[in-house]
Design goal:
Length: about 100
């Protein structure tokens, strides 16, 4: 398996989880979000959300930055567009963002 294929498999595996899929959709809609924004959107513990962030970050789909004691997350559009062209246009709609 070449590098592109390995990265694509990691991205698809990351997006196969409903929570991670919703995180990516929220970031497409909102741009950059802080961890507290996600805490308000998901009924998950901080450690569970951290686990999801780590998987998305390892797949190259999100970028995280720290500003003081706050951590902000944004979508890595270049990787998403390279691995899954048209993802944003196909998957970004209000219905896909409903958190269960």
């Amino acid at each position: 398996m070449n590098d592109f294929q390995s990265r694509a498999v990691a991205a698809f595996n990351a997006l196969a989880d409903p929570t991670r899929y919703k995180i990516v959709c929220l970031l497409m809609e909102k741009g950059e979000l802080g961890c507290s924004d996600f805490n308000n959107q998901f009924a998950l513990s901080k450690s569970a959300l951290s686990h999801h962030y780590r998987i998305l970050e390892n797949a190259g789909l999100i970028l995280m930055r720290k500003e003081g004691s706050h951590i902000y997350t944004r979508l890595n559009h270049s990787v998403l567009d390279e691995l899954i062209p048209g993802f944003a246009g196909t998957h970004l709609n209000a219905d896909s963002l409903a958190v269960e």
